[in-house]
Specification:
Glutaredoxin; alpha+beta; 150 residues
Length: 150
């Protein structure tokens, strides 16, 4: 059996001022993408928190649980929030190693397309990573206690 070694992700409590990436830490697909992002961050400009970490709700009460489940978020050092495809666009400017995304993500008029594509992948992320969904497509997993499937 092949063992997959996970990349250690920098924690915001262990680093100075950085942008914080909030992601679904219970999603295998998300983990692989965040680990890839970490490798692109050679200057250590980003730290990471799983949306399931209680610190997220305490630090970012303006981001609802559903918003966090719908897409990855980047919270900048100065408090701006970028979600989903907009986070990707922001990161293409923040990390020099993502220069190759600039022409695609910054082409005028294309953000609606990138947001739509991001949403389609995000809705299927558990299925993509091999988790079975019992609701015919979109997984409504990891609901906070008291919430029910919609």
């Amino acid at each position: 059996m092949i063992s997959i070694q996970h990349v250690d992700l920098p924690d915001p409590d262990d680093h100075g001022s950085t942008d914080v990436v909030i992601w679904d830490g219970e999603c295998n697909f998300c983990r692989s993408q965040v680990e890839r992002l970490r490798r692109f961050d050679s200057a250590n400009r980003l730290t990471y928190l799983s949306l399931h970490d209680p610190r997220v709700a305490a630090r970012y009460p303006d981001l609802s649980y559903q918003q966090l489940m719908d897409q990855l978020w980047v919270v900048t050092e100065d408090g701006r929030r970028f979600g989903g495809a907009d986070a990707g666009r922001y990161l293409s400017r923040k990390l020099p190693t993502l220069w190759w995304l600039l022409p695609l993500l910054h082409l005028p008029g294309t953000m609606p397309l990138w947001r739509w594509l991001y949403a389609k992948v995000a809705q299927r992320r558990y299925k993509i990573s091999g988790k079975a969904c019992d609701d015919g497509g979109t997984c409504h997993l990891h609901l906070p206690s008291g919430d029910s499937k919609q």
